[in-house]
């Protein structure tokens, strides 16, 4: 190989070795601008986002992608869920276990960079308990045994052992018979 060609190849190899490695294309950190309720026009959202556990929040911002982590944080804990693309925009479901209180929400990407946190109020929705329908009596059974029944294992742990309170709770649930454990063991004595 001629000396000039050797010098040129050596120079190219030296330049390639000294050149900085090409940095991979870097995405920008997520930016969370606002949080809203879904559906947007519910009365509970009139004074800022108030979402029940299991409900969804709408996230507005930039540099989001499917699969990012949405973190719900409070002073003694945090839970995360996945960011989803819906027809309304980017949304996340409030995971079970988030307490009913004001929590801070932020978005985290795969590089563990996070957005600014925004507040949201998590609420509990208490659904009324409807008593089971009263069934028609079964033929051949006495009336107390024909409807629903309730079994009490430890009397003192049910309504504090108060018979009137136990009866009121059973009546409210549509139960006509209450069974109380009256013995323990295998002997009849």
Blueprint (SSEs and pairs):
Blueprint: H1 3-18, E1 31-38, E2 50-52, E3 56-62, E4 69-74, E5 77-82, E6 84-86, E7 89-93, E8 102-108, E9 118-123, H2 143-146, E10 149-152, H3 163-172, E11 177-180
Parallel strand pairs: 2-9, 10-11
Antiparallel strand pairs: 1-3, 3-7, 4-5, 4-8, 6-7, 8-9
Main attributes of the structure:
alpha+beta, 189 residues, four-stranded antiparallel beta sheet, five-stranded mixed beta sheet, Immunoglobulin-like
Number of separate helices: 3
Number of strands: 11
Lateral arrangement of strands in the main beta sheet: 2-9-8-4-5
Biggest pleated sheet: 5 strands, mixed
| CATH class term of the domain at 31-123 | Mainly Beta
- Report the CATH topology name of the domain at 31-123: Immunoglobulin-like
Helix fraction, binned, reads: 10-25%
3D shape: elongated
Give helix and strand order, one letter per element, not per position: HEEEEEEEEEHEHE
The residue ranges in which pLDDT falls below 50 over 5 or more consecutive positions are none
Give the strand content. 25-35%
Average predicted local confidence, pLDDT: 79
Distance between the termini: 110 Å
CATH architecture of the domain at 31-123: Sandwich
The CATH superfamily of the domain at 31-123 bears the name Immunoglobulins
| Helix/strand/pairing category | alpha+beta
> Mind telling me the C-alpha Rg?
32 Å
Your description of this structure?
The chain is built from three helices and eleven strands. It has 189 residues and is α+β, with helices and mostly antiparallel strands. Among the domains are: 31-123, Immunoglobulin-like (Sandwich); 143-180, no CATH class.
